[in-house]
Amino acid sequence: MNSERDSETTFEEDSQPNDEVVPYSDDETEDELDDQEPAVEPEQNRVNREAEETRETLRKDCTWQVKANDRSFHEQPHFMKTRFFCIKESKYANNAIKTYKYNAFSFLPMNLFEQFKRAANFYFLILLILQAIPQISTLAWYTTLFPLLVVLGITAIKDLVDDVARHKMDNEINNRTCEVIKDGRFKVAKWKEIQVGDVIRLKKNDFIPADVLLLSSSEPNSLCYVETAELDGETNLKFKMALEITHQYLQRENSLTTFDGFIECEEPNNRLDKFAGTLFWRNTRFPLDADKILLRGCVIRNTDFCHGLVIFAGADTKIMKNSGKTRFKRTKIDYLMNYMVYTIFVVLILVSAGLAIGHAYWEAQVGNYSWYLYDGEDYTPSYRGFLNFWGYIIILNTMVPISLYVSVEVIRLGQSYFINWDLQMYYPEKDTPAKARTTTLNEQLGQIHYVFSDKTGTLTQNIMTFKKCCINGQIYGDHRDASQNSHSKIEQVDFSWNMFADGKLAFYDHYLIEQIQSGKESEVRQFFFLLAVCHTVMVDRTDGQLNYQAASPDEGALVNAARNFGFAFLARTQNTITISELGTERTYDVLAILDFNSDRKRMSIIVRTPEGNIRLYCKGADTVIYERLHQMNPTKQETQDALDIFASETLRTLCLCYKEIEEKEYEEWNKKYMAASLVSTNRDEALDKVYEEIEKDLILLGATAIEDKLQDGVPETISKLAKADIKIWVLTGDKKETAENIGFACELLTEDTTVCYGEDINALLHTRMENQRNRGGVYAKFVPPVHETFFPPGENRALIITGSWLNEILLEKKTKRSKILKLKFPRTEEERRMRTQSKRCLEARKEQRQKNFVDLACECSAVICCRVTPKQKAMVVDLVKRYKKAITLAIGDGANDVNMIKTAHIGVGISGQEGMQAVMSSDYSFAQFRYLQRLLLVHGRWSYIRMCKFLRYFFYKNFAFTLVHFWYSFFNGYSAQTAYEDWFITLYNVLYSSLPVLLVGLLDQDVSDKLSLRFPGLYVVGQRDLLFNYKKFFVSLVHGILTSMILFFIPLGAYLQTVGQDGEAPSDYQSFAVTIASALIITVNFQIGLDTSYWTFVNAFSIFGSIALYFGIMFDFHSAGIHVLFPSAFQFTGTASNALRQPYIWLTIILTVAVCLLPVVAIRFLSMTIWPSESDKIQKHRKRLKAEEQWKRRQRVFRRGVSSRRSAYAFSHQRGYADLISSGRSIRKKRSPLDAVIADGTAEYRRTVAS
After folding, report:
1. Active-site residue numbers?
2. Which of 100, 165, 795, 868 is the most buried (most CB within 10 A)?
3. Model pLDDT for residues 1184-1209, shown as the tens digit of each residue
């Protein structure tokens, strides 16, 4: 173990994971981790490091080189790499994306190759070749060719349609346009023509075509606002800012044309939040980071235009790197069906071999001595047996009919259209229907065990709404009139008295408006004034309307609320902020902005009023605000109670407070503040300490309550899926508190749930690993494995874990090289063996740890993983797939969900306002999360039941049909003679028995859609594979064998020593074949009638129509006219009319059908009476059941003074705009000439330093 620890050590092993940050980037290199080591380095480590560096002189982080406006630079020989044999191409990808599989030349060969990889298709191709050999062919070649061509054709057309859709999508994206510098000027070019090193111009509301370095923009200091909804589902704007040097010199077209900057940066990777590089220009190096990079898929907002240099294009862009590998998905039933087909192949070979041996024996004993059987060929009995083996392979091939695969494809296609046509999954607000983007996974929707869901944009609308507040101990936000009387129904508050109201806030407490307008309580006005002044929101006016841009949607919701209640934020400069207070404009001097960060969990602003008073206004999480309150706060307990109430209603809370500051106190503090602002190292920590000094002895004003609006029907959907024994895991990049809050809001978590966190389960897993290690001694293999639970049974537990803890627990933390005498290559065989053994031990330990984690997590009723990367989302899904062998479904709406969607067995994309990246990679898409319950509980369950019923029946009817040949062989010398007419064999699966079973596969339903939703417990049959498994397969096999025996032996017994009405014996071969065929068609069609649960006119017509079609075609084929035209193909002339005119034959047919079906009816009756299934019970009482049960939200129990959790404010994932505001870089002003800009910038810098 010591050598193991020496060779590989985890990064920052002794440190605790940070819940507030997203863990390391997915592609983080060892060198980057080494950079984070302590500055003090032991001497021996330094010597080892220097020695290793001399051996790795070529190793560099920044190996990606980009030259602006120079395409030839990227085509140099050392940038070329071999793709195929001697064909070389540049390592720099072009900007065209390709998601399609085929082109015009490759479609036919590639599609046929893929289709013949399917065992059944290849089998029928071999069969077709065998049928073309006259010596062994017992059936005409067209009996196989025609069905094979139909199968290949239908599948090829389906694949072609899917690929054409992908081509159209790719062309739509690749043919978008933007302006690119060509021949010294900007010209319009298509996205697919853009290359690395091109300088492009983007305009407002344009999608960004590649990953580009921002050079300049129309905004002050070349700020650029982008919407990242395609990447992370967040609709609030982020800002990027160009380098000061490029902002100054690269504004005009002629300067951009001559720009010749050279960039060295990291290789393409999937890190959305990191970028490291250097710009070399004008003999100077300029560092580049992620704040200067515009990523493909984002949208330019609130910026008239911007210029950028393409760094990564096409497949190299970060959004494409995050898309994951496209996997070919097949259903569980597909795999099971393949194994069953292989089983049938084995049975077929064994039966054919047995019959061939029987024929050889029969030839030796009987055939060689019967002169009337001589066929002119002097073959030995063994050779005749060999030929008959292949003859029986051909005859009995219908045990695996090729029409099975045609029918399966048709059923899946039809079920996909039913999903597309379902009006109850249509979202009229955005004209978005549900869409089955694949036709091969429908029945798998009825077998889901785990649902992995994104949060933002999937469970929530990402829309924050101001719902309630507590001011001076008084709660506002209930339905009340101006006299403080409560009403169950009351009109919304009319904000028309306020000229700045946006009309979007739905508020019902008229008493609050009365308090604001009357001014009786100064704290009420002070409360909304704080909301209007204490923020980092930026504002602009468009057509006289105020437009706010906030760093987080929560902050935007609060400022908009203040605006509607009469305190509108109008404008700001670097040092002032202007507020309209009930129609009166007042300007305040901003002395300092104390911005948010994840540690502070609060923000403050210090302002000087027009009267000269200095005040600090602060807002933040109650946990940090209450620690800093003055001891004399009379409303502290009332506000605490209000916070508990808001938390019980799953609202996100925030405390507001203020403080009067003396001039002298401020001046002393300001000196410390300015000193901390100029610190070159650990500046943030120094500022935080200074902030702490002023943010104390605060006076509590109250609290706000914001609703992170869930999508409609989310709690109902989660409740019903839980009743269907489907476990839901939420995987999100959001903060832990926010994710937990949404868990309570959507009732994934309840007040009765015991929540476990990363540190809790880490201890449990560590204990389990120690116990397993102790049991893993010499005698471990003789001891049966012990299944231990992590938690006592009966408790409702949930797991909330962050990405950092996930890496810690799953041993996924990045490793760094041990610096203690670690060599690049082992010098001796012993060292090599030790290293290999160490690596194996680490892998085994990691695998066991991961399995334990999955076992623990699956014992919980709900799991929430927050602050996770896209790669971690996919990893969690893969772990459950790997260790639980469970069917998984992933649902998301953004590009950060694509990897997860592709990894799961079924991927669902939400086609909302967050773009189409997830939808393009999904198997199914719709507009709202609530449609998931209908997709699974109705369409999924029906599809599973229909497919299982179809397969069971299909195997049955083909065993019953084919095995008649087997029994017949005992009476024909095992001569591979068919028991039916050739045309009957050809048309049996195509016409005579295909339509009824197809309609059952398309239309059957055990209970209605409303009852399926009302009783989610019906869903478990699919999860447990109860309707189609090997047991059901062998039941169908036995049923088919018994039916084939009855079909053969009853007519055989009836025909023995029988005389017809005309005195002649009807026991000729052709009449016997017609009798068996007629009984078979009637039996199998009536059998599907017994299996049908949902009768319609179409079902009845198909059953009786198939029987009528059989008799009609048979009489035509047995007519003299068609025999005259095709004498060799139609040889049963007059058989049907001669045989079926005799009542004895009809009695034989009726008896055969009755003996086949009556036992089935009796067994079904006893089963439904004695052992009814859940669906049988519901069917029996469906008339007295209500059409649909109205779902009721769970009643919450509120206990005053007891707060088991706290709903938390969703802080921005990055700092707010405070730095921009205080520096003045965001303030729009008229653009000055270039020289003036440089001079002003220098002067401003000097003033800042001087102050």
Report:
1. 454
2. 868
3. 665 445 454 555 544 444 444 444 55
